[in-house]
Design brief:
Elements: H1 2-11, H2 27-41, H3 43-57, H4 60-69, H5 73-78, H6 89-101, H7 103-112, H8 114-122, E1 124-126, E2 129-130, H9 136-159, H10 170-185, H11 190-207, H12 215-222, H13 228-240, H14 242-268, H15 278-281, H16 301-315, H17 324-329
Antiparallel strand pairs: 1-2
Amino acid sequence: MVKELSKHLTKMRTNLMNGDHLHVRYMTHIVNLVVQDDLKESYMSIERARHAVRYVKQSPARLKRFQESCGDKQLSCKKSLCLDVPTRWNFTYLMLIRVVEFENAFTNYDSSEIGLRHYLRNSYIEVEVPAGEILSSDWVHVKRTTKFLEISYLLTLKISVSLNITPNIYFLEICAIYVYLNQLIASEDTDLSSIAKKIKEKFDKYWGDPTKMNEIIFILCVLDPRYKLDLVGYVLVNMFEKTQGLSLKATVKEYMILLFNEYVKSSSKGLGVTVSSPCSLLQTSTSVIFGSQLSTQGTGPLDSLMQDLKKYKAVNEDVDTRTELDKYLG
């Protein structure tokens, strides 16, 4: 597909950089692959939760008794259980967050409803594999899985919108997840750390090697006036350590210059427009870029990353005190 598109653009004389930047990995597909590994880790616990929800929703009488088991009347009135579509992980997430909210209700209902225990004992997930009763360990696994799925769910919502431009946030979202996974790996919870390692291995397969990433992902973020090159460099250092991060920053700037020169050549049409030399323009900033640990508290990894970016920008505001007009006129 990419080769055919490149050939078509070449015929139209609009194929800049020989089409090297045309292939960009499908982000939601990669997120889906990463999520599937997480779901496998808690497969039995999720199946038990799914069977419990199915049992309650099969009958209005059961649903009424379940609502009576809920101590919080406001919770039972405003929210209800939802059954997922097993092949759609985002629906599984929506089901699990509701199950977690009704944990106490399920505990009370299970102790008073013999039918639920009987149903789970005689329901089969696979051939000769009964679901079994919901154990305390299942709640731990479900909560842990929900925590991972929430990150992927919010990421998918952000990058899948159709009314806003989102490519400029791709790189920041990738970095936020990368740093967040590193934090979970360093967690004292050995089970959580083990799962995070497996997820990161899948993550690294697609985004762990910056040399295999399309430079356009970085450039789109640089072109966002809120971030620009220095802040993108800061994020690269957080993601790939200082030496490699600064090297990537220089590479991104060089590629931007080459791409800019290609646009100049294509638009000048032989009018004698001077093209800047990449070597002369490749004077990378020597401002100090320091590491910063993200806080796992807050509404999400990206929000924590944004706070760190604001702090970094505030510290380095005195690097260049000229106004935008002075920079333009200069």
